[in-house]
Every structure is written in structure tokens, then in C-alpha cells.
């Protein structure tokens, strides 16, 4: 029996930076009534509020939901008074500057070209620096076709792994690269869930679209939790498959 179901967000529960659709919102609400659920994603807290929480009107079940933004470098729990942040593993100003400088260098050295951007490419999320190749506000159709097989971002990641040896560099989302402190990733978040909720790793299951090596879901594999690799179009089938097990 699985007591905790952990989901990635973009590419798993929803399209990149898009709100949960109505069917997924209903399924997630139903699941929260019978099991504990956590969502760990590269997005920051405001993105979770927009994509997920604003589409879950049943506040009674929120007590079973844990939110871990920026790849598990932050953790929010719902209390009677509202959402409470349990921790945030933030960068220092010096660390931020090093990451941003070397990120610019790696992108230039990779030879990866971007014809047009929509908004800033580099976002400081406090505990994570995120590079979004097409910009923070790029249309979904443009993001889907830019790097569907992750080849462009892998070129940048190879360079960053050499220059940012003291940091964790992972590919996430549709066009993103997420950089966090070393060891502060989705595996870190899962272990925080383990201790906070007092649920054993073997009683958890993680579902995400980037479980390949170098993907920002991959650290979940290292925890020993059962993992399911999905893409957005198969999430409903997988969910229906696991839901009776949870019940």
C-alpha cells in the first residue's frame, strides 16, 4: 500500500506553466480525500498557487497536500491558518552571481541558438536559478517544439557540470535548466517528506516526466521510492491504474 503519492507538475499534472485542466483537478481532489499527496516541481511558490491551488476549491483536503517548489528546495504545508513554509534552502548573493555568470558562459559556449525570447531567460527563485531558453513567458507551442528530446539543453548541462562543480544542474520543464545547491534536489525533498510525514520510502511512489539521467526528476530514483516515468498524455491512464491501489 502506498501512503504518499508524489508528482512532478509541468509535463506530468499539467502542461508547462499551465493550470490543471478540469479533469485533472477533479482527479487530484479525489486522490487527496484518500491519500497524502506531494507535488515537487522546478516552479516557484507563485507558480504553484496559479497552476494548482487556485484550481482546488476543496480546502478540507488540503491538509493531505504538501507543496515542494523549486525542486524540493522549499517545503509548504497547509495549516488551519493557511500555507506555512517549513524551510527554504536559499543561495547566498555570492552563489547567485557565480551561477548566473557561468550560466551565461555555458549557453554561449554551447552554440545553442535562440531566435526569439519572451521575457527574461534567467530567473532567480531564491533557492534555485532557472534558465528558460525561450524566456519566462514563451508560448506553449513554441516551447514544445524547441527541444523535445532535450538535446540542446544536454549540451548546456555538460558545460555547466564542468564549471559549476559545487552545484546541482538538472534539466526540467519544456525549455528549462534548474540549478540548486548540491544535494538539494527532489531526493532531498523526498527525504524531507519522509521525516515530516513519518512515511517510509517504500510507502511512496513518484510520478514524473524527467526521470532520465540528468532530468530534474532523476534524483527521486536514488531514494529507493518506486517511480513511474510518464509523459502528459499518459498521466490519466497511469493515475487510474494506481488509484485503486491507494484506495
Description:
The chain is built from eight helices and eleven strands. The chain has 247 residues and is an alpha/beta fold. It is globular, with a radius of gyration of 17 Å.
β-strand percent reads 15-25%
Name the helix and strand elements from N-terminus to C-terminus, one letter apiece. EHEHEHEEHEEHHEEHEEH
Neighbour order of strands in the largest sheet: 5-4-3-2-1-10-11
Number of helices: 8
Which structural class fits the helix and strand makeup?
A: alpha/beta
Compact overview of the structure:
The protein has 247 residues and is of the alpha/beta class.
List key phrases describing it:
247 residues, alpha/beta, globular
Provide the fold topology:
Elements: E1 4-7, H1 22-32, E2 36-40, H2 45-51, E3 65-68, H3 69-72, E4 74-79, E5 82-88, H4 93-110, E6 122-124, E7 129-132, H5 140-146, H6 151-163, E8 168-172, E9 176-180, H7 186-197, E10 204-208, E11 226-229, H8 235-246
Parallel strand pairs: 1-2, 1-10, 2-3, 10-11
Antiparallel strand pairs: 3-4, 4-5, 6-7, 7-9, 8-9
Helix pairs in contact: 4-6
Amino acid at each position: 500500500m502506498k501512503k504518499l503519492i508524489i508528482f512532478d507538475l509541468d509535463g506530468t499534472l499539467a502542461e508547462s506553466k499551465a493550470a490543471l485542466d478540469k479533469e485533472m483537478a477533479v482527479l487530484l481532489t479525489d486522490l487527496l480525500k484518500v491519500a497524502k499527496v506531494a507535488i515537487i516541481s522546478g516552479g516557484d511558490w507563485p507558480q504553484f498557487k496559479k497552476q494548482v491551488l487556485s484550481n482546488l476549491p476543496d480546502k478540507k483536503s488540503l491538509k493531505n497536500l504538501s507543496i515542494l517548489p523549486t525542486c524540493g528546495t522549499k517545503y509548504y504545508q497547509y495549516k488551519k491558518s493557511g500555507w506555512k513554509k517549513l524551510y527554504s534552502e536559499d543561495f547566498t548573493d555570492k552563489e547567485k552571481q557565480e551561477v548566473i555568470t557561468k550560466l551565461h558562459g555555458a549557453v554561449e559556449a554551447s552554440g545553442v541558438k535562440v531566435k526569439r525570447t519572451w521575457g527574461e531567460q534567467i530567473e532567480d527563485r531564491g533557492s534555485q536559478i532557472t534558465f528558460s531558453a525561450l524566456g519566462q513567458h514563451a508560448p506553449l507551442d513554441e516551447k514544445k517544439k524547441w527541444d523535445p528530446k532535450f538535446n540542446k539543453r544536454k549540451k548546456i548541462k555538460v558545460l555547466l557540470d564542468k564549471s559549476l562543480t559545487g552545484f546541482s544542474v538538472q534539466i526540467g520543464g519544456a525549455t528549462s535548466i534548474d540549478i540548486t545547491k548540491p544535494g538539494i534536489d527532489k531526493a532531498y525533498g523526498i527525504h524531507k517528506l519522509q521525516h515530516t510525514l513519518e512515511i517510509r520510502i517504500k510507502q511512496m511512489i513518484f510520478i514524473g516526466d524527467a526521470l532520465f539521467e540528468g532530468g530534474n526528476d532523476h534524483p527521486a530514483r536514488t531514494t529507493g521510492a518506486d517511480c513511474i516515468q510518464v509523459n502528459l498524455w499518459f498521466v490519466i491512464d497511469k493515475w487510474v491504474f494506481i488509484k485503486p491501489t491507494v484506495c
